[in-house]
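Work Package 4 report. The design task specified in the project plan requires that, given a folded chain encoded as structure tokens, an amino acid be chosen for each position. We show below one input record used in the internal validation round.
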């Protein structure tokens, strides 16, 4: 699936992404954390925090994820706690984070023109973007600037990522899966407030082939100016409508993301998702979404249940394409979306991308994808394919993922799948893989 046609197709693609980027402070679980948390372990064992307010809460969240083997994300009660951790704990690595940031960099690496709207945009954040990413900046008309020229915010959004592999130990807890615990910060900046570029949205829409929108889960229930999440979700809804009305040919994909604030999850599902052409999520997000819509959470060990839950979500929201990415397989449900051959080709390419990222940690060029030829598709993924063969209802496409047992990092793997799948769908539907 790594063809010259796709390589040239990426260079013809033009994308718009919004909203969420951050600086990821990555810490790999090791013995040094036991020293850092030495006074917090006894208290942490009895905690089930929904917000991270202190070190004991933080340790409890890490241990809970290690024990379950399932990744999760919580928020700092005060975004400045994340700043203090940089001094007190220190990160193993600082890198681009946030769905929009990670996906923008991947598409730019493959040669696509990427326009991103994100806030806050500090200089530290801007320097993490790859060449080829542009930021819309208002002035005398619309200007598209390199991120470092557009950066003007002093506030930084720093998220902490605690990564661990199956078998890793912290105190008396052994990780049952390879994943991570994320603690997100919510600075006093509204990420969905795109007022400064609102008048230029039609101009942006005319310039692009597709849009990927993420970060709605970053919304707060109430802001310092007295506005609530409802106002800003409506603002996000208007952006989609303006783009669609201006350029009906573009496709728009929503990255689900979830928050522990149920009212916001439900708002996203009711107001945003039905306007999209495509919705992408992982198994954890599917479980949360199914509960918010009133369905039973699927047993992720039973492929038929996962499929039926996806079908219920698709029917309830009306989204034409629903995509699920897991470590062992990718599953797409289509209802009046694109030709299934396009969808299958896109998934096959995406598994080359994600296996390359898992092996190398970072993709620096299209040529890096050659390494994916060494990786065989997951046998567990093949078992899921076989289990779903008996299902005849609906149109679905499934491929086994190329599973990497010990990835260099787990953060961003889902974003790599999601963005590369959608990008290839657009390359093929527009014929960009063929000679112009």
């Amino acid at each position: 699936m790594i063809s010259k046609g796709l390589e040239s197709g990426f260079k013809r693609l033009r994308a718009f992404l919004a909203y969420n980027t951050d600086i990821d402070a990555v810490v790999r679980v090791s013995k040094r954390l036991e020293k850092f948390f030495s006074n917090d372990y006894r208290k942490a064992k009895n905690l089930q925090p929904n917000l991270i307010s202190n070190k004991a809460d933080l340790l409890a969240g890490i241990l809970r994820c290690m024990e379950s083997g399932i990744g999760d994300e919580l928020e700092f009660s005060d975004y400045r706690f994340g700043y203090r951790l940089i001094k007190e704990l220190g990160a193993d690595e600082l890198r681009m984070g946030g769905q929009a940031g990670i996906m923008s960099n991947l598409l730019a690496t493959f040669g696509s023109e990427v326009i991103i709207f994100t806030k806050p945009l500090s200089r530290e954040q801007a320097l993490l973007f790859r060449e080829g990413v542009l930021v819309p900046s208002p002035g005398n008309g619309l200007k598209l600037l390199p991120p470092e020229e557009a950066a003007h915010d002093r506030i930084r959004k720093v998220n902490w990522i605690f990564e661990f592999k199956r078998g890793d130990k912290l105190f008396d807890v052994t990780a049952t899966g390879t994943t991570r615990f994320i603690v997100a910060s919510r600075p006093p900046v509204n990420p969905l407030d795109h007022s400064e570029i609102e008048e230029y949205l039609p101009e942006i829409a005319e310039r692009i082939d597709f849009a990927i929108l993420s970060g709605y889960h970053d919304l707060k229930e109430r802001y310092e100016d007295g506005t609530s999440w409802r106002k800003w979700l409506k603002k996000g809804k208007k952006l989609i409508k303006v783009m669609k009305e201006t350029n009906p040919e573009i496709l728009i994909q929503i990255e689900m993301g979830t928050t522990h604030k149920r009212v916001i999850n439900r708002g996203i599902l009711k107001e945003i998702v039905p306007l999209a052409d495509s919705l992408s999520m992982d198994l954890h997000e599917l479980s949360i979404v199914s509960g918010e819509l009133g369905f039973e959470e699927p047993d992720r060990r039973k492929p038929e249940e996962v499929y039926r839950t996806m079908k219920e979500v698709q029917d309830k929201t009306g989204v034409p394409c629903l995509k699920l990415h897991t470590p062992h397989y990718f599953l797409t449900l289509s209802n009046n979306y694109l030709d299934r051959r396009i969808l299958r080709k896109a998934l096959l390419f995406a598994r080359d991308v994600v296996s390359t990222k898992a092996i190398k940690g970072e993709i620096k060029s299209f040529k890096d994808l050659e390494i994916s030829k060494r990786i065989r598709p997951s046998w567990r993924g093949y078992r899921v394919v076989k289990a779903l063969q008996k299902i005849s209802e609906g149109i679905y496409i499934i491929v086994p993922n190329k599973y990497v047992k010990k990835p260099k990092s787990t953060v961003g793997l889902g974003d790599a799948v999601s963005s590369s799948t959608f990008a290839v769908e657009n390359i093929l539907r527009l014929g960009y893989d063929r000679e112009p």
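The mean pLDDT is 93. Validation will be extended to a larger panel in the next phase.
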